[in-house]
Amino acid sequence: MKLISALCTSFLYFSTSVLFAQDQLAPERPVGLPPEITNEARYDGPADNLPDSYRCVATTLKRWDYESGDWGLQDSTVYAYDENNNLTEALALAWNGILWSKSLRITNTYNARNQPTSSTDESWDGTNWITQYGNRQTLWEYDEDGNVTQVISRFRGDEAWGESLKSIYVYDPVSSNLSSRAILANLEGSGLENYEQELYPSCNDRGNPLITILQSWENEQWVTVRRESQEYNEDGNCTLLLVQTPDGENWTDKYRNAYTYGPSTLLSGSARENWDKNTRSWALNYKTDYQYNTKGGLTSIDLSYWDKKKASWVGANRQVLEYDEHFNLASSLSQFPQNGQLALVNNHRSVFTSDTLGNLKTEEYQRWLSNKSEWEGDYQRTFYYEAFENTEAIQLVPPSAVSVTQSSADDFLQASVDRAVFPETAFQGCIFSLTGKPLHPFKIASAGRSFNISLKNLNLSYGTYLLQIRQGKRMVMKMIAIVN
Asked: Do 15 and 103 form a contact (C-beta atoms < 8 A)?
C-alpha cells in the first residue's frame, strides 16, 4: 500500500520563476480577499460573527523566521464557490518577501447532485494557467443512485495526461450495497494493470460489510491474501474486526480489533490482539482509550502497548484536547516517550481560536523544546470568511451542528449531528484538503445521531481539513483537525 500511497500523493510546489509585475499582488490584499483584510488585521464582524451564514474564502500561512525572530508570510490559498456552494477553485499564492505570486490553482467540477467529478492542478507560467509535467488530476464517476463507480488518478507527463491509478466500484443490483472494489495501478509506466481488489460477499441490513476478502494480482490471477469479518451493535457501529489469512482451504487468525462505545454511541476504546500460533491463544498488543467532555467533545486519546515482560500496559502516545467556553477546539497536545523513559513528554501542539459558532479563525503549530522547556512556534494559519446569503437551494448551517471525533487511528471519523438540523437519515459529503482538493466524497445512511466516515486508504496526515456535509438543502462546512 506504500506504493499506492505514493501514486496517490498530491504534490504542491511553488514556481520560482520571475513573474510579470502585473501578475503579482500587493501584500495588503491577496486577490479574492475582502478589502477589510490585511496581513495584520482580520475582519471578524460584530461579536466575532459575520451577519449571516458564512464560508471560508481564504487561508494565509506564516512561518517563524529564526533570523528575524518574527513571523514571516509564506503562502495563501483563496477559495471560490459556485451557486450551490461547491468549492470550485483554490488559488495558491506564494510570498516572495515583497509581493504575492500566483503559483498553482486547483479547479473542481461537480454533477447535479453536487458530487465532485474532477479536480485538476494547473500551474502559472507567468502569463497563463497551464497543465505541465507534475500536475495531477482526479476524476470521479457515479451511478444513477449517486454511488461512486470509478475514481481515476492522472499524472501529467511531458506531453499528455497518463492514468496512474484507478479504483472501480461495483454494487449489488438488488440491495445497492458495495460488492467489490478493484484497484488498477500503473506500476511500470506502461499502463494500468490489476493490482488488488476487495470483495464484499456479505453485508447487514444497513449495508455494512460483514465479510471482506482482499486479493492481490499475482502471476496473471487473483490470489486471496486476507479475510476480514466484522460485527456491529444496534447503532450500526463496528464492535469487532477479525482478520484472517488463508491456510489451504482453512483460515488462520491473524489479529482482531474490539471496539467499545459509551453514551451517545461515542467510541470509548479499541483494543488489538494478535493470534499467537505457539500458544494458540490471543495475545494483547495495543489499545486506544478515548475520553470526552459533557458536550461529546474528545478530550484525550491514549495509545498504550502491552509489555509482556511486565505484564502491564505502557503508554505509547497521548493526545490531550482542550476547548473554549463555546466548546470549540482550543488546543491539541501530543506527548510521546523520550529517551527510553516510560513517562510521556510534550512533543508538539496546535492552538486554535474560533468564533462563537465554531468557525475556525486561527491555528498555530508549535514544537516543544525539551532543552529549554518551552514551546517554539513553527507556523500560523489564519482563516478568512465571507457572508453567505441562504437561497432556496442552499441553507448553510453553523459548524456547531456537527461534532467530529478524530478517531483516525481506527481508520474512521465519527460524526455526531444535531437531529433538529439534520432530521433525515441520508447524508452526503466530502473531505477536502486545505489546498482545495476533494479527497473523499461519501454517501452515508444513518438513523442514529452519529455515523462513521471511513478514512481507509486515505492516509490523512496530522493537520486541518475541510469537511462538508449535506442533507437536502441544508449544508454545514466545518474545519476539522486530524490529531492522531
From this structure: yes
